[in-house]
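INFO batch 0412 | record 1 of 1 | parsing
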Amino acid sequence: MSGLLTAIGIERPPSIKFGPGLVGEVGAFVRARGCARPLVVADPFNAARVEMLELPGDPVVFGSVRAEPDIANLDALLAMAERFRPDVVIGFGGGSAMDLAKLAAVLPGSGQSIHDVVGPEKVNGRGAALVQVPTTSGTGSEAGTRSLVTDPATKNKLAVQSRHMLADLAVVDPLLTLTVPAAVTAATGVDALAHCVEAYTSRKAHPLIDIYAVEGICLVGRFLARAVRDGGDREARAGLSLASLYGGFCLGPVNTTAGHAVAYPLGTRHHIPHGLACALIFPHVLAFNAPAVRAKTATVLNALGLSADSDTAVGAASRAWCEALGIDMRLSRHGVPEDDLEAMAGEAHAIRRLLDNNPRDISPAEILAIYRAAL
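INFO prediction complete | emitting tokens
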């Protein structure tokens, strides 16, 4: 684990507006910057409520962002951006919309393709301002510098990381999440939890990030069940929005570990939404890592109102906690076939950028055992 003498850097949007009713700050920012060609990147639901952003003029809207976006979805957006040449790009939606917005702000006119920029700090620069507006509480993408797109040819996620993809402004308005259905609230809430837990228990964990990670875990423990029970609970929605933002702070300098690596093939191969995929895997990896981070695991359980006297009990208690949110925790119920588990384990084990951070080494056989236990 990292200590106080380990160097670390945090990059955050220079302006973060957090609070109910602040979504109109997007339009104020665009006007103040003198931008005249805004491009909004959204899923179909949020594309129908773009007026909430209070943008000047008649913004162009790319409203067909898909869950788990792939290269074809990105290419359609980039083609629109190449034609329109926006001077500001606004991501308006969940992590998928915000991730694509980042790429729409840096790739058009750059001479670079998505394959040219995969990895850390390969983006040449950015030609448009960037604003991020989350409408779910899970990914924390509004605060980060990473974008993930699925490559259908390899069924793997392409990860781009660049300081040029950091938003100029992030507007986190919890009221935008009031319409999120209970099932999506539960799954994305566990995704926010996983970001915080994985950063907190990572080999790269750092005291500077631990403070956000632990507070994010506590916020999820306090507010997620409330928001699932009553989607109109504004305090609970605000608590989850803050937890998600804190999870985004954790991703930059520390990032996730085995939980996300093991979850990725569920999305790329079987089209399970990212938040749900992370929720299905979360208790299994928490239990697997417990022997390496016992004190931190106890802190996590305590924040969720749980206790366990063995590693097996860690998995059982955290799985029951997820099930109490209404999440069906069986992979088979979400279309994952048993005969694909071995190939999934091989793919997950190859995601070294995440697995090398895990507090405990994990083999392909151990990943396969997790999938089988979750089936």
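INFO post-check: The longest strand covers residues 88-93.
INFO record closed
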